[in-house]
Specification:
The two termini are 33 Å apart. Helices cover 53% and strands 14% of the residues. β4 (79-83), α4 and β5 (102-106) form a beta-alpha-beta unit. The longest helix is centred in the C-terminal third of the chain and has 15 residues, at 177-191. With 212 residues, the protein is α/β, with parallel strands linked by helices.
Length: 212
C-alpha cells in the first residue's frame, strides 16, 4: 500500500520508512512538521497515513488536526496516529467521528513490529486499532457505567475496543468462541448498545459509548 508518514524525530521517521518499505509498502511522502502534513495527504491520497500527534512548530496536536482535516477532504482516509503518551482528549476527539479506518498507538508499539504492521493493515482495511493503554484509560473514565460488567466481560470489552475479532478474543482469553459471543451479548445488553452483525460496527459502537 502507499503510505504517508508524518514524524519529526529523524530516527523514528527513518525507522518507519525502512520498516514499511521492507514490508513491501511504498512511502509516498514524508512530512516533518504540522504544516506539511495536509498538503502531502491531499497530493498523494495514500492508502493510509501514519502520523505523530505532536509535530513542529507547536508540538501540541498538529498531527491530529491534520488527520481530522484530511479525513474531511478525503472521507474514510485510514489514519494511524502515534503518540508518546496516552492523551485521552486527543484519542476521544479522533474517535468522535464514528467512522472506521482509525488507529491510536503508543510509540513503543512500533518496536513490536508484527503488532504495528497488523494494526496498520487493520486500519487500512477500514477497521480500528487502539493501544490497550488507550482502551484502559477510556474505560477508566467511564468507570461507573461499566461497574455492572463482570471482570470477564470487562476483559472482552477491552479486547473488542482494540478491534479484535471473536476468534482472537477466544484465543487470548483461552475460552470458546461461543463463550465470547455470550459475553459480548451480555456487554451490549448491560451497556444498552444495539447488537450488530458487523464486527466493525460493533467496535465503533463500543468506542462511541466509551467516548460519550
Amino acid at each position: 500500500m502507499r503510505i504517508v508518514i508524518a514524524e519529526d524525530n529523524a530516527l523514528l521517521r527513518e525507522g518507519l520508512v525502512l520498516l514499511l518499505t521492507g514490508d513491501g509498502h511504498e512511502v509516498a511522502a514524508v512530512a516533518e512538521d504540522g504544516p506539511g502534513v495536509l498538503p502531502a495527504l491531499l497530493e498523494h491520497r495514500p492508502d493510509a497515513a501514519v502520523l505523530d500527534v505532536r509535530l513542529p512548530p507547536g508540538f501540541r496536536d498538529e498531527g491530529l488536526r491534520a488527520a481530522i482535516a484530511a479525513r474531511k477532504e478525503i472521507p474514510g482516509l485510514p489514519v494511524l496516529v502515534l503518540s508518546q503518551y496516552v492523551e485521552e482528549t486527543y484519542a476521544a476527539e479522533l474517535l468522535a467521528g464514528g467512522a472506521g479506518g482509525i488507529g491510536y498507538l503508543l510509540k513503543d508499539r512500533v518496536g513490536r513490529v508484527e503488532e504495528f504492521l497488523d494494526a496498520l493493515q487493520r486500519v487500512a482495511a477500514g477497521g480500528t486499532a487502539l493501544d490497550p493503554e488507550v482502551v484502559a484509560q477510556l474505560m477508566t473514565a467511564r468507570h461507573d457505567p461499566l461497574s455492572a460488567l463482570t471482570p470477564r466481560e470487562r476483559e472482552v470489552l477491552g479486547l473488542m475496543a482494540q478491534g479484535l475479532d471473536n476468534a482472537t478474543i477466544a484465543t487470548t482469553l483461552v475460552i470458546t468462541e461461543r463463550s465470547v459471543s455470550k459475553h459480548i451479548g451480555a456487554v451490549f445488553a448491560k451497556l444498552g448498545l444495539p447488537p450488530s452483525d458487523s464486527g466493525h460496527r460493533r467496535v465503533l459502537a463500543v468506542l462511541a459509548y466509551l467516548n460519550s
